[in-house]
Records
---
Amino acid sequence: MRKLTESRLPLALSQGHRGAPVAHESAVRQVSGQARYVDDLPEPANLLHAAVALSDVAAGTLARLDINTMARAPGVIATLTLADVPGHTDIGAVFPGDPVLADGDILFHGQPLCAVAAETVEQARHAALLADWTITPGDAILTVDQARAAETYVGDTVQFRRGDALTGLANATHTSSGEIHIGGQEHFYLEGQVSLVIPEEDGGMLVYTSSQHPSEVQKLVAEVLGIPFSQVTVDVRRMGGGFGGKETQAAQWACIAALLARKTGRAVKLRLPRSQDMTTTGKRHPFVNRWTLGYDNAGQIQAADIEVNGLCGYSPDLSNAIVDRAMFHADNGYFLNDAHITGYRCRTHTASNTAFRGFGGPQGMMTIEAAMDGIARTLGEDPLTIRKRNLYGDEGRNVTPYHMTVTDNILPELIDRLETSADYWARRDAIREFNANSPIIKKGLALTPVKFGISFTAKHLNQAGALIHLYTDGSIYLNHGGTEMGQGLFTKVAQIVATEFSVPLATIQSSATRTDKVPNTSPTAASSGTDLNGAAAQNAARTIKQRLIEFATDHYQVRPDQIEFDNGQVLIGEQRLTFADLVQTAYMNRISLSATGYYRTPKLHWDAETGKGRPFLYFAYGASCSEVTIDTLTGEYAVDRVDILHDVGNSLNPAIDIGQIEGGFIQGMGWLTTEELKWNDEGRLLSNSPATYKIPSIGDTPPIFNVELFDQPNREETVFKSKAVGEPPLMLPISVWCALRDAIASTADYRINPSLNTPATPEEVLFALERLADQVREAS
Amino acid sequence: MTDFLLNRQPVTLATTDPDLTVLDFLREQAHLTGTKEGCASGDCGACTIVVGEPTEQGMRYRSLNSCITFVHSLHGKQLLTVEHLEQEGALHPVQQALVDHHGSQCGFCTPGFVMSLFALYHSDVQPSRDAVLTALSGNLCRCTGYRPIIDAGMALLEARHGDAFSAQMTDIEAELRSLGTPVLPEETKPDQSVGFWQPKNREELARAKARSPRARYTAGSTDLALEKTQRLANLNALIDLSQVAELNHLSVDAEGLHIGAAVSYTELEPVLLADYPEAREWLERLGSRPIRNRGTLGGNLGNASPIGDTPPLLIALNATVTLSNGQSERTLPVSELITGYRQTVLADDEWIDTIHIPRRTPGSLFRAYKISKRFEDDISTVCAVFYLETDKNDIVTCLRTGFGGLAATPLQLTDWQEPLIGEHWPALAVNDLSRTLAEALAPIDDVRASARYRVQVTANLFKRFHLETTQPDARTRVHGHGGSAHA
């Protein structure tokens, strides 16, 4: 079922170089239980365990916080409230607004109020139950509508304008409007939030954490303690999943553990129980989005006025960039002509929503895809026909609402190929036939594209560093600023370095991301891990390789072009040395065998004032075709077949890339189908465990799941002309949602576009069917 | 003392910490951290381990959720962990298959998948995609999308051969059989408040309860252990029913199925499905493989939860339950056992002993429907069970129902169903009846679904039952099997 690209470099592939489908660097340790996560590390002597107590009210003021009983509980060594914090009390990542513990204002149900350290996990968690408080309740704002009505926001409203959308709409042949409620998503990384902090002799802290952003954890730990950044070292060997949930929101637990470690002089570990993790950390932003489109008789869009409203929670966190990215993707792959896109950042008394694979992009994209179906149903055309007619094109149809020219558009070709390989039109006919003869069970089909912008929209984050040492036995130590969360970054970067030196992959030793090895790093986020860190490591490798070449030229009296690194050996004129021999000889001749590498992404510019520029170096593209079956009596459904064609440029590792595509697809499918966040009227999260929050399980994997790579090099200069792959596939399952809607639409002969909010749970599907039947009744 | 093998190492544990879970024992006491905690509620499978036990057919390996299994329940068994599968420096075939198929990304769920696959590898199941899905139904992965894991499982099943464990089985069995007898409360001490006791028969059970009247019963602990892991309760006195011989008895006679209260769903499966094959989908949707390996009918009835999956089925099938205190017994309909939200008629000294499901009448029609947000390992939004008998003219002679998720207790809608006796089944006014069915229900909104959805779906499930029993060729299920294929 899996299709790997044909190898063009057979020998290099056998060495595990770029393009080889080698196993994840930790695979053997993972399957044998040897791979260590933070909670698995050998525990330091005298380790204390911490626990936190969470607010049971969504909004108000903390009138009284009594920790006396908690402090006297068995095994308790120390307690922590905001008053104990020697340094900064706000750990907001970009903007302030995130007190490390409650500072008097209660911001959401589940906000950490105080913490405790005890001899055992059990003692700490029992003690935390004994904290007592009085909260004077205030009015809680819990929804987008409430926030908009109260005009309470975490950031300024932003609008992109290209042309005059309102005039465009007034002059359009047809217009259609709509609204969609898009649910949030719990990350459900299998390894929950955890930090282990060990105090050092100089007052510094060594922090083991499960974080996508070690440098930020370093900064925030230093700031809450009031010590220089240089005294805090953060170590991340791997995470048991991140997905964005550990970009900013791993820091709080490291800070609390560090504060308790400072107070006690003992090592402290803080690991959140799952229900607390789900309650207190932010999620993918729910959105309420609205649109008005104008289009001609062919269904081509003439103008668009789109409004996105992100439910941000109590603080800014990364919400401004996330709502921006929703706006950047409100066009998906389509030319909107005259467009206004407006983004509101709604402040609510809920956990502070945060990065999650796609970073707002998926919610923006859902809006235009929902609208596409509407045009098709109104004009009586197939939704795929309408989608294709609206794709970006040549001059005149290639500028985004934020004034970036799309120069690498491959969607028309990519969709054509998928349309054929998935046999779209024949299956469309077969499904219509099936539905005509099946009163209860209905099928749906949809093919949707993805165009996703690659680069951090905050320009300064588009930089990375790496560190490479060669040892005299020829082994190579590799470190860089990116973190490994399962996505295969360490594997890909090691492959890049092995390729540069032309040595077997096993020569490369990957190492834990550490703030004392490579400083001032960006989060591993925005799909940028390999683009940035792979390029930095490549530069470090090239620096050392250049030194070796210069040395060999001189030492062996050959021309540089007579030196060739070749699969663990080095050809120097007529001589053939092992790589290790050359390294050793270089060492004896006093050549530096260690180098840093640095990379910054070129060509980026963005003017936030005018909403114009080039926020992305390039776009990653893909498309998927999904077929579903729904039960009109219960709303239950199954995804029967999925075909995907996805663009990763030149694949650095087809097995890992396909793994990202399949995994992203299923994760996105969960977001759009079964993963339902529910709060009660008091703002308490009800879906706070895997018993009540249902991510896809193994039976949800489509029985037919064809994934193919669109095998063309990136047109921009990236490392070996590869493309980022982390986030874009998350949006491929929009085709599942559209297919569900297609199946629902079949019950009204495809003439009406059914409203279907997400997640499209069986309940939502059944009610969508009901609403549609009501509409038909009213119309007749 | 509790004696078991930890991999190949004999372990003896004092029963002073009765509610110690296998997971905490492994990670905190044995310092084996390959087994992970993902949720501590039996929902994610990161903590999956395999327990081997000697049976008449040799060693039997079952996957369990170590986070909700009490370590003292392992007496006389072998606890296998991920660290032990590598033998002589080589990965076990299940480990190698996951590596070869790129089945791990972040790797945190991986040890759990390895152990579930190990249990599958040592089962006698026929190779199929469904067999792999069922074996892994309790393991969540957030990274891979499962496709490579399914491929690894398929490849494994197709190339199954012995492993180092097959060769060791005889030795292991002998070692396990030589372990000491499990602990019972001391005969002389009244009101013992701390201990984990494993009576082997009814008599020992009655004595244990007499010596520790406040002890809680446990069998699979799939629900009870959550009081410890989620609500931080201390369960200081536990009587484990899983070794009581009579409660593990499973028999079929002319009267029906007699199912000991401590029989696991996995053991029950072939027996129940032999008589009631239409229950397959319902059973496959009940928890996950590791949950079904531990969960019991007795536990599900004793919990008396409104969303338990088995009471609706047992009520609709006219099942009865025998309660016992060791001296006397009483048998009553399952519908009379549960009296309120998590309340039963059980007296303090009584336990649920045996469940009796009558043989079905030839020609009877039966369906058990479970509706939930996710197909596998999810709690019922609604459970609806229908049992119908008709005469040769299709006149209804018996109709029974059982509903879950619709009220504080499982329901049987006697007033609604009884007037249908004597009606011509194919000619029923189904729309009217589904409306009156809906009107008879008053569920609540909760995290799983709205009340309105529950009512609508229940009414529609009656339509589905009527359709499946009158038009067997109509397709009514999304999962391809259809009503009739499941029958």
---
Amino acid sequence: MNASLNAWSDALSELHLLGLPVGLVVIAAVPLVFIALYALTYGVYGERKISAFMQDRLGPMEVGKWGILQTLADILKLLQKEDIVNKSADKFLFVIGPGILFVGAFLAFAVLPFGPAFIGADLNVGLFYAIGIVALEVVGILAAGWGSNNKWALYGAIRSVAQIVSYEIPAAIAILCGTMMAGTLSMQQFNLLQQGEYGFLHFFLFQNPIAWLPFLIYFIASLAETNRAPFDIPEAESELVAGYFTEYTGMKFAVIFLAEYGSMFMVSAILSIVFLGGWNSPLPNIGPLSLNDWTTGPVWGAFWIVMKGFFFIFVQMWLRWTLPRLRVDQLMHLCWKVLTPFAFVAFVLIAVWEIYVK
Amino acid sequence: MDQTLSDFGTVFVFLLLGIIFVVGGYLTARLLRPSRPNPEKLAIYECGEEAVGSAWIKFNIRFYVVALIFIIFDVEVVFLFPWATVFKELGGFALIEALIFAGILIIGLVYAWVKGDLDWVRPTPNIPEMPVIEEKHKTQETS
């Protein structure tokens, strides 16, 4: 963790010294390094350890002390694995599928502010761009599943696409509610609007009495959009082997996993930026104890957004071992008959509150 | 910060870097990994069984219905986003307009709901009884 934080602050100071292209590449490389590091440490190793502790197991223990080097061994193994493209597959779609998945997930990081001064591109349509580009993974999943020419993969892909596009609706309406509270689509502006000396009291979640409704809706929908349990029927291992990536081996498999952990962090970060202040410190100033001022700054900003993202990823892992998997009809019922109507209710209530009450 | 590149130029740098990362990963693996294909490895994985036929089949029509409903709602949300950024200045009248706009879509949702298009396992088709037409049909047959 500390090493990657230092890397960010180094990159920040270098920005003004180096020429433009170098600076830009550094800006772009930081999220890439972040995705790789976080997926390796927290994503793979952390998830295995957390899963293990929740089930009263020890998890990986063999490679290194407490199995710390397990993911490194996994990466070496994946690099050396033979790359099998089955004979009857559509080779072009099969190869390009993981690429679209990863590039889509990575492009979303272009608008993710890692602190008051660090953002790839502060687009004025940043939030809109982010939810749009995260949804691009549908194309990658369909390419991977269809290109495999494997029945498990095809079933996994079409289930996944149906699920992602359905949950896109409540998610988008929930984000719309956040946009109505902020009156902007710029990711950095969202953070600045939630800044203040009372810490968490300035977060949109606590600024509007109805905000918890879109917050919960977006969280549930984001689970479905990243195919996490309890919405993991696209890759239900007990019935579909592995879903759309059944046929993938070696590096392509690794790329799919990086993309998956990347979009897991992305949806968690969007959730925390829209409703929980993003890189703002949640600690309030209490009299002489100016906790908020002490915990604000470029490095603290990166710390808070990453910690908030990691917290929601932890909740995602926790839910995986708490809730049973939903059936496909229950999934559609939850999306269209529960979340979407409630999202519309939240939309109307928030609009009325923002205009007439506030 | 930058005079030459617009914000979307930065996004383009991200795009290039992402592609370079994926292609670089593929190439590194290509240098390291063995390649010893045989017919069993190149066969489709189906839990040890030999695959029968292609996986490129016609799939359930329900998926198309879901996709259609999705497109309608997504377009609606897209139209609401620009309104949402300025609706505080526009005030009550624009709110009513947006609610009418959303209301039309909600009527569509209710319609799809009542028709049973939102149920994954479709209930038995609800064909209304039309005794008048049936009688006409019968009389035509007999005559």
---
Amino acid sequence: MPILSLITFLPVIGVFFILSMDSRRGELIRITTLLVSIVVFVLSLPLYFNFDPRGHEMQFVEKLPWIPSFGIHYHVGIDGISLFLILLTTFITPIAILASWHITKHLKEYMIAMLVLETGMIGVFISLDLFLFYVFWELMLIPMYLLIGIWGGPRRIYAAIKFFIYTMSGSVFMLLAIIALYFLNHRATGEYTFNLLEFYRLELSFAVQFWLFLAFAFAFAIKVPMFPFHTWLPDAHVEAPTAGSVILAGVLLKMGTYGFVRFCLPLFPAASHVFIPVVSWMAIVGIIYGALVSMVQDDLKKLVAYSSVSHLGFVMLGIFAFNIQGIEGGITQMINHGLSTGALFLVVGMLYERRHTRMIADFGGLTKRMPVFATLFLIVTLSSIGLPGLNGFVGEFLILLGAFKSRILYASIATSGIILAAVYMLWMFQRVMFHEIIHEENKTLKDINKREFAILLPLVLIIFWIGIYPNSFLRKMDASVNHLLKQAGGEVQTASHLQTQNVPVTPQIDIVSETETAW
Amino acid sequence: MLNLVSLILLFPLIGSAINGLAGKRLRKETVGYLACGAVGLSFFVSILVFCGLLLLPPEERLFEKRLFSWIESGSFRSLAALQVDPLSTLMILTVSGVGFLIHIYSIGYMHHDKGYHRYFCYLNLFTFSMLLLVLSNNFLLMFIGWEAVGLCSYLLIGFWFEKKSASDAAKKAFVVNRIGDFGFALGIMLIFLNFHSIDFTEIFSAASHGNFETGNFAITMITLLLFMGATGKSAQIPLYTWLPDAMEGPTPVSALIHAATMVTAGVYMIARCNVLYTLSPFTMTVVASIGAATALFAASIGLVQNDIKRVLAYSTISQLGYMFLACGVGAFTAGVFHLMTHAFFKALLFLGSGSVIHALSGEQDMRKMGGLKSHIPTTYKTFLIGTIAIAGIPPFAGFFSKDEILLEALIRGNFIYWSIGAIAALLTAFYMFRLLFITFHGESRVDHHVMEHIHESPKNMTLPLTTLAGLSFAGGFVGIPGASAINHFLSPVFGGHGHAEISGAETAEHHGAGLPYLMMVISTAIAIAGIFLAYQMYVKKPGLPKRLAERFRFIHKLLLNKYYVDEIYDAVFVNQIKKISTQILWKGVDVRVIDGSVNGIARLVGGIGNIFRLLQTGYIRNYAFYIVIGCIFIVVLAVFGR
Amino acid sequence: MITITHYLVLSAILFTVGVTGVLIRRNAIIIFMCIELMLNAVNLSFVACAHYLNSMQGQLFVFFTMTVAAAEAAVGLAIIVAVFRNKETVNIDDINIMKW
């Protein structure tokens, strides 16, 4: 059964269903969309269970010619790295749809946008053909743009355009680089193809790697977002509707980090190594900067948005540690961030629905009125802080351990991020949930209803699951991550040799392996 | 029997889960009995495990129970596995035992509180976390417990979250602990880097088999980083500031978490890593010095505080300083011994103060107490026992442990450590009896509205008090010099070091056999001097303290305001960071620089577009005209271009 | 003798007339007719060239052009009618809704 195609295009089929519906029958549209997304999730579960953790080869591969004259194929497949991102996508989407129950404006179009978005997101993670990848990459941009631009807050147009142009300007360079790879591959093998797996075999000179890495990295760094390309994120998050924020934080940001893992590292290993200091420092600055700026925000969504900058800094740091702990931690942290930050946005959305404000100062003392909500909120907050026993810790610890193994200094500075995380999250939690109720409006707030509970509960359960038994996730990615390291690390030697010969840029190369870290 | 060890963890966890999920629907009694029963069962199993351990020959007293593999990545592996050895057994007995008594006490104390089930849920969760901390067999699992007790402390300090001071204190506690945990986490990573494992047994055997020479830099860094974690959790200089504020929580919580168990986690951790610490003389000096400094520093603040619980809080910090002093000079047994006796009498004192507060309808200011002796006799009697114990009068528990620490400080450390310890002991005796005299003796300064409701606490509160009083009296007998059962019991863990016996032998050689006895006399004399001083000042001549305070206004004010450390921290760190984040990072870098340039580019493009826009008239005619011009241009180019 | 040049010159003149008409006239219908004129001028040169080169391709293309012209007439007139209904005028100076 072509399961990957099925989950990718099922939402599109759902779109046709919804198109045929009367736009006045809101409930029907909502339930259909939800059902479609749930079916997609259920169909994606066999991916996890049937995934063979022993091999690093792509699994569930499907390959059909698409535009054969240009060597473009419909070529999809997953490994242990993309597996969890797909599951995350299929898991988050129904939750996001459930969280948009209150949408009434252009409901039909909204739900269509959500489903198209899901197709785009899954497509990005499964594509093994760079052309196909690019198509999906741009495809998911459009519904997100519409979600922010139509269903967003007061400054939605500004935010939507900013989001769109930022991402576009990055992906243009990526497109250039993809085309360059296409021709370079032709020059090397005489074959025109966009097949990623073929590109992996290319041996590029350092100078070429350097520029192509930059082009790819630029696109991904914007998407992550890494400091200093992050300023679209707070605006987009603040203006986006709740579900938009959830998907943006939960899945879209992961495309940046996923891109680094899938493309930059294995395609341009030598360049990646050269860029370790640059990327790591950007990540570290992002961690601390994001945390500090997050701390002083007075808008809840902005606070969470900046905290994303900080969290994704950790992911990048882990990936560029170039060892198994770092990368596995990074991937775990991608999932964790999707879950806990997604949940935080949901929580903020619930508050917003009740009070129509996101200002921290407008709240206070909510625990008294909303005890169940308070408990769930606290768990989510703690997971974001990285409390051991919850998911955040597993990722953060492995990342820091990996970073520590490769560069002690980086890890030591980055670890201070966990202190700051406690400061900004707990301070926010205190101001929102504790103290006496000062505002009259807050005295009549209702605790969460069944739908809202159903939204948060699965997230909380998985937060515990990853925190207590992460091995069920880590084991599936071992082979793929090891293979990735072989691709990314194995060529280091040749690359450093090339570099000393003919490249003027000579930052020191970090030989990464199980070597003893010198004191 | 040792196999039962996982039950010790399981019971409180289940209790917490049930109370947390369904506590609202349960009856109050059920909630209380459930929570107490869970910890009680845990205590019972702990005793079984203890007996099981005693049945084994001393050198085989190490049992590991693997539950599952927690985090595995590459060569890194952290198991969820429990370790039973004399040290952890001693700890689980103390934690579950004292915890059990405090649970019972809480039934009475928290009876009228609306968050009854929430309280017991947290309290059980805390017990679980603390037991996990002491039972874990590797650093990372210990770190779960380490952070989880911090979380429970956060939840319980902020239990009355409507009060701003309470939620502030809770946040402060968590954040300050996090600063320590930062060090602890780095320490774990460094351990993994050097030992390629984080299992206690593997690390300690690697370390003790001479793979690392004494003074090894890596080991020094590891131990220092771990100690940083300990300063946070165990409230030592410079991270002690959260503990006095933590008194915002319900009093039984202060007793359980902020006196008897959680704050001793740092001491436990250092005792657990004794092998590493002894390899690093530098760290040992740091530990001992910080311990000694904290002991003195906190005691001096305790002299003038007026809040009954705050006095006890500073006394806790000071006593923890003692324990670190002991560990720092290598007398791990003495440290752990004091940890245990301190758990008894400090829990007693806190619960006693809780009983006072309960009787006075929530009043905590000692200036509004006085003469309570006859009104709440049971509380008074038990409190007196606790006070004597902490002051160090033989044969009460505190005497033996404190005396041992002072003795070890002199023998293994130097005269400075001893004298600091001795001065702190003097101060301790003084301020504890000051507390006792102001609260229970003299004339009543209680408001008469409050006076009408004054009552002795119910049975379920006094019972734990009397039990703890018994322990505070008798608990020291396990460590009588010369025939110390605790020394003997703990010797497999502390191996060649941390033994009073050995040091006793050395003592005999160097100082003559009489030294320990001389020291006993001296420390008793110190304690009595402190008590006498307090008696003179607060019973005989009640006007004297005031005159002294006026005479030494500056010092008094300095002490009363706790050396202004909180204010300094606020001014130097908290406010500066907030200011920098807001003004420079957010409004400067983010809004001005980055967004400014991004929007600037957008505006530039827009401006250029505005110029070209003028060509766009909207008249098709004009567009057609452009086309024609274009065509002509192309034709011209084609014809004449070559 | 009428050579190919005559045809081409005539075609050019017709085309220029068409272009000038499009550029200077205000009435949409007349502009429309001028466009037709341009198309027919091109048709003329197609036929002439086809005859001259003895090839059927030019002739064929005329059919295409005529089809397009017919379609254009249909759509164009419909647009003009629609515009007239809205604006009550076919003076193109009044129709500048393409301006942003």
---
Amino acid sequence: MSAVPQQELPRPGGFPEIRYKRYLPKLGPSGLVLFSGITLMCTFGLYRTGQGIHERRELEREKVWSRIYLIPMLQAEADRDTYRREVAAREREAQIMKNVKGWKVGESVYNSKRYTPQTHVVLP
Amino acid sequence: MSTHREATNLSTGKFVDPTPAPSESAHPEVGATSAPLKSAAFFIGAYCKDYNEDFLLCKDENNDPAHCLKEGRKVTRCAMDLINKLRENCEKEWETHYKCLEKHNQEYYACRKQESTFNECVFSKLVML
């Protein structure tokens, strides 16, 4: 037995490095790039959606105004026709009720001066 | 034998009153269909603004059809006048535009090109605004 104790030592040149890390290949862009890219895309999409909503609203406004501008003309025409029908109906009523004493032709059933369209009409 | 019917039948066309209009309300009608009217709507609105507003104020005063016959005749006459002017000056452009409207469900946005040529014609030939 020698006096110098024999100690276990690494082999000459040392052990190779232990590979404890995962060596995955780098996949795709970084999180920051992804996050900011998605934010940008969403912002752009929302902007375009907003523009579309504005445009649709304007189109609707245009349509409504085109109808508003035509209302007086159409209403005037309809009024003349209604007036013609009412006069004719009153004449028929007068003809039918001429023998009834105290009958007022075209008298409203309402106790009001406001105009009410006729709900019933006398047909010949 | 006369009967009573609901007045709603009148608008469904089951009963057409053949009585001619009384002399105080008789007036020729515009007689245009929906597409030409829609095509010229903004011109009618601008050209007949005073008459239209007068008529609507009158209607607001009293809803009776007999109350606003005079104002209504003015409105119709104004629209007919404008339609005659459009037909004299821009008939081709107007026809192109309203035929396009007819084809595209009467949506304005489908016929911008025809609309702008019609507008250009009206603005250059009819100074009315």
